[in-house]
Amino acid sequence: MNISHLKMMQAVADTGSLQQAAQRLYKTQSAISMALKKLEQEAGFALFDRSGYRLKLTAHGQQYLRQAEEVLRQHQRLQTLTDSLREGAEPHVTLCYDHTCDASLWLKSISELQRHYPATEIRIEGESQLRSLRRVNQGEVDLAICPWLPLFRQYGDFETIAIAPFELTVVIADTLVNSAGGMPRSRQQLLNLPMLIPQNLDVGISMDAILRLPSQRRIQANDVSTQRELLLAGLGWGVIPKHMVRTYLASGQLHEISIPGFVQQVDLEVHLIRSASRSLGPAATSLWDMAFTAFIA
């Protein structure tokens, strides 16, 4: 048994396919197949059921994989710890935030990070549609901030800290209100107007399925800034983070929609997120610790 064989088993279990596992790991299919045979020879039982179109774990294979994944997590932690001990503070820290969140949430922490780790380069990247979660899970970034729901844990092994409130509101442009002959006061009046919705989120969540609103005239936008511009142009109504439209609500360019029995506001949280299977370097750990200290204070 070796670590690379366990990684191959995990990839096959995730994809159900030797070909897809090979593509993910940049290996040949024969290398993946040989690794599985080697693991099964050492274990003394079948790890996968090969009778169907897709490879599926046997009952023994499921138990084996659970322990294998813990071994892989421990190996990753040991590797990152080794790198940190060998090199000192990491040469760079990559921070990612979802565009729906206020990027200023990083500012105080970044200032402290610069003061304590001046040689560490700080990279800040924005993403749409919760891609920040995928990037944390794949080890592409050290830390991320994004809106959080408990169901996101099924998409990765995450640790999180709540750092700020996150409020969604339903809005419509003043120009669209005027052209429609007034503010919509019923669900049906609202559904007669164009609706702006985000495209399916990168973690596999369909906003269309969640909203379940049968509006026939729709515009899908793949980032929240574009959605805001479409709202301001009067091209439809939609749900958007309140902090992104607060000034336009104050000026009267946008109005919040209030319809009895219709969700007009959603209160969530923004979380700081890291992978539970990877150890952070000293600089990134300091950012996490600052957020944790603020959380329990």
UniProtKB/TrEMBL annotation:
UniProt KW Transcription keyword: yes
UniProt-listed Gene3D superfamilies: 3.40.190.290, Winged helix-like DNA-binding domain superfamily/Winged helix DNA-binding domain
InterPro entries found in the cross-reference section: LysR_HTH_N (IPR000847), LysR_subst-bd (IPR005119), WH-like_DNA-bd_sf (IPR036388), WH_DNA-bd_sf (IPR036390)
PROSITE patterns from the UniProt entry: HTH_LYSR (PS50931)
Keyword Cytoplasm: no
UniProt GO molecular function: DNA-binding transcription factor activity; transcription cis-regulatory region binding
CDD domains: PBP2_LTTR_substrate
Keyword tags: DNA-binding, Transcription, Transcription regulation
Residues in HTH lysR-type domain copies: 1-58
Signal peptide: none
Protein family: Belongs to the LysR transcriptional regulatory family.
Name listed for the protein in its UniProt record: LysR family transcriptional regulator
